[in-house]
Amino acid sequence: MSGEVTDLYRQRLGRYQAAIAMETPDRIPLSFSVGCGAKVTGHNYQRQHFMYEPELFLEVLLELANMYPQLDTMHPGVQWAPFWDAVNSRMYRVPGRDISPDSIHQFEEKEYMKDDEYPLFIEDPIGYKMNYYFPRALGEFDEKGSIRSHVAFLKAGLAHMMFASIMGDVRQQLVEKAGMPVAFKGAYLAPFDYISDFYRGLNGIMKDMFRQPENVIKACEAILPYMVRRAMETADPSREYPIFNPTHKPCFMSPKQFDTFYWPTYKKGLLMLIEAGWKVRIFLEGDWSPHWHHIAELPKGTVVCDVDNEADIFEAKKAFGHKQCITGGIPTDMLILGDPEDIRARVKHLCETVGREGGWIPNGPGHIPENTKPENFQALIEATIKYGRYYEGSPPEPRTASNNSNTAGLSEPNVITPWEVVKKENGWEVPGDEKLIKKYWDKLEQMAYNLIMSM
Amino acid sequence: MTELAKALRDLDEKKVHELVEKMVEQGASYTDIIKECNEGIIAVGELFESKKYYLTELMFSAEIMKEIMDKLEPLAGGVVGREPVGTVVIGTVKGDIHDIGKNIVINFLRSNGFEVVDLGVDVPAEKFVKKVKETGTRVLGLSALLNTTYPEMKNVVDALKEAGLRDQVKVIIGGAICSEKVREFAGADYYANDAVAGVKICNSIYG
Predict the structure, then answer these.
(1) Cβ(B191)–Cβ(B150) under 8 Å?
(2) Scanning every residue of chain B, which has its alpha carbon at the shortest distance from the alpha carbon of A287?
């Protein structure tokens, strides 16, 4: 990597990290998902191409970095369709496979867990998954115990490793060729969202909150360690990049319901990750305004929140933006239907208000929409550079994490079959180094366990 | 406000069922029971507008209402005064398969006495046009979550014009991504960002 590229990387990362830490960078960072990337760079690739071959997405990102060197991060993309195909996840509509190849992938909820099955789930989440959930939610496991279902499991594991390797390469190339950090690595999901998205659907959990509130709370508590472990396993070990956290259901919930069902376990998980040295990039989907005062409970400068366009960015700043960095403020219809003068005026206004003392990054509704006019995208970049400078001189240096604890206060990782059990079953006397054998037995058991819980 | 209306307003599912069963035992008519329930549903709408209730409460009120209406179905046959307030044809536009918001609106419309024809998701313009013609509806609702759907909303309105049906129907575009700018772009008559606003518009059209 050339000195120039290394410098660029350090400047961008330092700027981004400073904004998140609520310290003053040299200028307002430009860090958002560029949904209009293909349009802006003039590529003909369809969404389907990106979802099957992230290497093609990398092409677009590298070109975008070249066209707009002012950008400070790239959103690397987070999903790989072959994984869904391999297990036949009934929840996803895949571009090119069952919806238009141009469409973003889409998620369809269903009540895969029945309303009287909470006790089974709470008692043994992985057992519930294997015995009840997979046959209902994943088409390749229709026939439990069939060779086809065994092969599907193997394929899922292989696909998981392949995708991790592809994305590792994407990140590396962004760094080495363009000096470009990614905006996040790894994912955390609130326990409530996990249960609602994948098990009960909104309709189901809505009824559960009224009819069996204790079970909803217990289920969230039961699943929390898995959410944290999954986040840690997928996160950046050096803690340079934040962990991504999409939120889904708060925009439907009353404050009372949010405080009772969503926030307690969600907050616990966030704090565990923060205490283990990570920052978290949270997409506050929909109107979070009844709940976002809670975000101010978290230690200062530990999360960066993408504020959606249903909510008021100025209110967000007042409610918690004095403690945590926020992104957003450019209306969706302005980006898609408006003109560059509208964008320039809006960005100027935001720079002078919510961005005046730092802690703000421009954005649309959690992303820059796919149909944003290229000239509007250009205007956004130029206006931020023009009106968003805090001081002349270099950006702050990137920072190292203060804590590299790998346990995040969790109990021992889960396994299905402990080493002691398999050793006894086989009568192995183990004349050699038992620790060596156990290390890899445990590692693979834990990886498999985590993958099953994430499927 | 009657006990039943209050119970529904307060989302006390158990009490609602008990009171309805009692009323049925005492020989109350379908129309009387539904009238009291409607009072409760209107109160729920008001609580939603004043930000005391949120979407999940709205959804639960519609769920209770649906259960009551199913329970009372045997009583309902051939009843005068069971005429719907009006018909609404609704669907999520082509290119979008999201339906949570659409289904909230549908349930709330039905709770408010509308007959709703649900075309589902990923609905092409021709299907909307066909159903508008077939039903003679005065309200067409286009729902969407994805902000890539603006051109498709316009497609539907243009297709209505082409079919000579534009004057028959008021088009409401619905979803968080809708705004005055989008309404204007698409050529729709109204936009609504939530279910209660949407139902109010339908009431004003049929009122």
Answers:
(1) no
(2) B176
Within 8 A of B53 by CB-CB distance, chain A residues are: 254
Contact A145, A34 (CB under 8 A): no
Q: Same domain for A260 and A301?
A: yes
Taking an 8 Å cut-off on Cβ atoms, the answer to whether B95 and A100 are in contact is yes
Closest residue by Cα to residue B68 from B78, B79, B76: B76
> Residue A331 CB: number of other CB atoms within 10 A?
19
Length of chain B counted residue by residue:
207
Look at residue A455 and tell me whether its pLDDT is greater than 90. Answer: no
Of A148, A155, A180, give the one whose Cα is nearest residue A10. A180
B147: nearest CB among A206, A286, A336: A336
CB A299 within 8 A of CB A276: no
Check CB contact under 8 Å for B56 and A106: no
One domain, residues A51 and A76: yes
Q: How far is the C-alpha of A16 from the C-alpha of B54, rounded, in Å?
A: 35
- Amino acid symbol at A21: A
| DSSP-derived 3-state class of residue A311 | coil
Helix (H, G, I), strand (E, B) or coil at A106: strand
E strand intervals along A160-293 = 243-247, 280-284
Q: Tell me which of A98, A103, A105 to substitute to probe the interface with B (most B C-beta atoms closer than 10 Å).
A: A103
3-state secondary structure of A182: strand
CA distance A378 to A412: 50
| B148 vs A211, A310, A370: nearest CB | A370
Q: In chain B, which residues have their Cβ closer than 8 Å to the Cβ of A252?
A: 54-56, 59, 100
pLDDT in tens, B58-92: 999 999 999 998 888 887 665 555 678 999 999 99
Which of A186-190, A427-431, B99-103 has the least mean pLDDT? B99-103
- The reply to whether residue B147 touches residue A331, judged by beta carbons under 8 angstroms, is no
Partners of A187 in beta bridges:
A244
Residues B143, B154: Cα–Cα separation, whole Å: 13
> Nearest Cβ partner of A210 from B13, B148, B185?
B13
Q: Which residue range forms the structural domain that includes residue A423?
A: 414-455
pLDDT tens, position by position, A90-146: 999 999 998 989 888 888 889 999 999 999 999 999 999 999 999 999 999 998 889
Calculate how close chain A gets to B136, using CA atoms only, in Å: 30
Q: Which residues are CB-neighbours of B11 under 8 A, at least 6 positions away?
A: A210, B44, B57, B60, B61, B64
Label the pairing between strands A243-247 and A280-284: parallel
Here the CATH number for the domain that contains residue A330 is 3.20.20.210
Nearest CB to A253; choose among B11, B54, B148 = B54
> Which residues on chain B are in Cβ contact (under 8 Å) with A365?
147, 177
Task: Tell whether A387 and A439 lie within a shared domain.
Answer: no
**Residue B154: which residues within 8 A CB-CB, separation 6 or more?**
B185, B186, B187
Give the residue on B whose Cα is nearest the Cα of A205: B56
Q: How high does pLDDT run on average in chain A?
A: 95
| Residue A398 near residue A14, CB atoms below 8 Å | yes
In chain A, the number of structural domains is 2
Structural domains of chain B ordered from first start: 3-76 (1.10.1240.10), 87-206 (3.40.50.280)
